[in-house]
Design a protein that fits this description.
Blueprint lengths: L8 H8 L12 H7 L9 E5 L5 H8 L3 E6 L2 H13 L4 E5 L12 E7 L5 H12 L2 E12 L20 H8 L7 E16 L2 E14 L1
Parallel strand pairs: 1-2, 1-4, 2-3, 4-5
Antiparallel strand pairs: 5-7, 6-7
Helix pairs in contact: 1-4
The protein binds S-adenosylmethionine.
The site of S-adenosylmethionine (SAM) has 20 residues, from strand 4.
Length: 213
């Protein structure tokens, strides 16, 4: 990996090493709204890539999903384990990098991520690669900041390269590196975030829900 694509676990460890939960303890509103429509059974497996302190995975585990996380941050893992214990649920958490992680094919019923921003070369190659881990009929749900968020102060990376453009990300996630995906929902929206001091106020977001054919 070169300087432009190198991941930075130290930065996330510093953020998650504090006592407070950086993005709160409640699940992301978009992910919650889509996942609540699903009916997991005892075998249903959900992957939460880059779930940081694990708020989405812990919530989903409480709803009956076998929830798994991978994320760069060992401090994030500690916070997730703490949250899972508080809610009396189990989450499997791997400290790992999207770029290096290998995925089984047709493993998960759901893959869901919030605010998983990576440099373009990583996003366009590895996000679609990850989708092969969905079973046929499996769901991919995602929320990320749109490029028009750049000048706003309600969170997100201050780099256009790390922000999402809807047409670009859709082309990638339905393109040559991806399995066949059908689009259930794809939008750019203005929303009001209230996750934590880092994610509060009017924001411009990309919201996706795709299903593997
Ligand atoms: C803005 S935080 C969002 C955390 C969580 N999804 C949430 O909404 O609370 C971004 C997360 O992406 C993770 N991350 C960034 N690049 C990654 C990579 N290449 N592989 C795995 N995790 C990564 C970071 O460690 C961090 O936890």
């Amino acid at each position: 990996m070169d300087e432009n694509t190198r991941s930075n676990p130290e930065m996330w460890d510093r953020r998650f090493g504090l006592e407070a939960f950086a993005y709160g303890k409640e699940p992301n509103v978009w992910l919650k709204s889509r996942i609540e429509l699903m009916n997991p059974d005892v075998h249903s497996r959900a992957l939460f890539p880059a779930d940081g302190e694990g708020r989405n995975a812990v919530w989903a585990a409480g709803k009956g999903w076998n929830a798994e996380v991978f994320d760069l941050s060992k401090e994030g893992k500690k916070k997730c384990m703490q949250l899972a214990e508080n809610y009396n649920v189990t989450v499997e958490y791997h400290v790992d990098d999207l770029v290096l992680r290998s995925f089984e094919t047709e493993d998960y019923d759901l893959i869901a991520c919030s605010w998983f921003h990576t440099p373009t070369p990583i996003r366009k190659r590895h996000m679609p690669r990850m989708l092969h881990a969905l079973k046929p009929g499996g769901h991919f749900v995602m929320e990320g900041y749109h490029q028009s968020q750049f000048s706003l102060t309600s969170g997100g990376p201050k780099s256009l390269d790390l922000l999402f453009d809807l047409d670009t990300v859709l082309a990638e996630l339905t393109g040559p590196y991806a399995p066949r995906m059908s689009i259930i929902h794809a939008s750019v929206e203005t929303t009001v975030l209230n996750e934590s001091d880092l994610h509060r106020g009017e924001a411009r977001v990309v919201r996706l829900h795709l299903v593997k054919v």
